[in-house]
Design a protein that fits this description.
Structural class: alpha/beta
Number of strands: 8
CATH topology of the largest domain: Lysozyme-like
Helix content: 40-55%
Bound molecules: zinc ion
Strand order of the largest sheet: 3-6-5-7-4-8
Number of domains: 2
Low-confidence stretches: 79-139, 144-150
Order of helices and strands: HHHEEEEHEEEHEHHHH
Length: 368
């Protein structure tokens, strides 16, 4: 090999080496650029996604706000429609009951000259027994008349303005009373066992029903029931021991104050009088009256006929002047005054009860 040829070969090799070097450099730069481009592309894609997300969130938020605003506007509009005007709401407000009570007690202050006992115009709330407050009970045995004055005004009876009728509240009920089930037309509102008005003594077998008048013109059944419930330690307690199994009001409403199996202090007499003490063998019924002559309203008397008939049937007793007594027959006291003054009215009443019992042989089943 000649020198020239060797030199040429060396040059070729050098050229080839440079070429390889350049190619390597180029591919390196290529890779770098490629990497840079990919990174930039990823960055842009990320940015685009983020912006899209932000736009979506803003859209959703706007939608929610718009919905809330619409709901508020719609509600406000419909709410305004339902709200009555002040004048309307005044008209629809029911008469308040305290006004009612005040009216009634004011009307009952007229005391009769010959009172069996006096009913204080205002008594403290008395409840020594738990008395659950329930809804107003059924209407009285004889419904207050539908025509004429409303119950808020009270009706005019034989020219006498009666106090308003107040719906009664059922007190604690008594499950067992000598095996007799109380009908729904009697409101049980028992007075507490206090040793004074209600001694809590077990009564003997029943032989009579004794009729009374309350002796306090125009006082209601509830007024008298509350009077019986006056606690002996109350400053308004008058020291008297008085009670009754039942009281019938001016509108014929009936309240039971003492259970049937207990003694009520209604027509007792002292042992020295020589008369039998019928507190021990009689059920007592007090009655409201609308004038000082002690006359009962027809509503009171209708309820009295029904209650007396029901009691006599419950005890298996007939209706006559021995089973139905006036307080007057027990002690000589002018009670009920109208019947003491007019015995014929008492006899007519006894006959009415007998007729009623004949016409209604099972009052308990007919009027449960
Ligand atoms: Zn009496």
């Amino acid at each position: 090999m000649s020198d020239r040829r060797r030199k040429n070969e060396e040059t070729d090799e050098a050229d080839f080496a440079e070429l390889m070097e350049l190619e390597e450099e180029l591919s390196y730069e290529d890779g770098y650029l490629h990497k840079k481009r990919s990174a930039r592309q990823a960055e842009l894609r990320k940015k685009r996604k983020r912006n899209q997300l932000i736009r979506e969130i803003i859209l959703i938020a706007l939608f929610v706000i718009a919905t809330i605003v619409i709901i508020i506007v719609v509600r406000k509009c419909t709410g305004d429609d339902k709200k009555p005007s002040p004048s309307e709401s005044q008209e629809s407000t029911p008469k308040n009951t305290t006004e009612f009570v005040t009216d009634a007690t004011e009307d009952t202050t007229k005391a009769s000259r010959e009172t069996e006992f006096t009913v204080p115009t205002r008594l403290p709330d008395v409840t020594t027994e738990p008395v659950p407050q329930t809804e107003p009970t059924d209407p009285p045995a004889t419904e207050p008349p539908t025509e004429g004055p409303t119950e808020a005004q009270g009706m005019i009876y034989n020219g006498v303005q009666l106090p308003p009728y107040r719906p009664l509240q059922q007190g604690a009920s008594v499950a067992v009373q000598s095996g007799i089930t109380m009908p729904s037309w009697v409101v049980q509102d028992l007075i507490p066992v206090d040793g004074a008005h209600r001694p809590g003594l077990v009564i003997n077998p029943i032989k009579h029903v004794v009729i009374h008048y309350v002796g306090n013109t125009l006082s209601s059944a509830k007024d008298n029931r509350d009077y019986f419930a006056t606690p002996p330690d109350s400053p308004v307690y008058d020291g008297r021991q008085v009670s009754s199994h039942f009281i019938i009001g001016l509108y014929g409403e009936i309240i039971q104050c003492v259970p049937l199996n207990e003694v009520a202090y209604a027509q007792g007499v002292s042992a020295s009088s020589g008369r039998p003490n019928h507190n021990w063998d009689a059920i007592s019924i007090e009655n409201s009256h609308y004038n000082d002559a002690g006359e009962f309203t027809s509503m009171t008397e209708d309820s009295l006929v029904k209650l007396t008939g029901w009691l006599l049937q419950s005890y298996g007793l007939p209706a006559n002047t021995d089973t139905i007594l006036r307080h007057y027959d027990c002690s000589g006291k002018a009670c009920p005054k109208d019947w003491a003054d007019n015995p014929a009215r008492y006899e007519a009443f006894v006959q009415r009860v007998a007729d009623y019992m004949a016409a209604h042989p099972n009052i308990a089943a007919e009027y449960p």
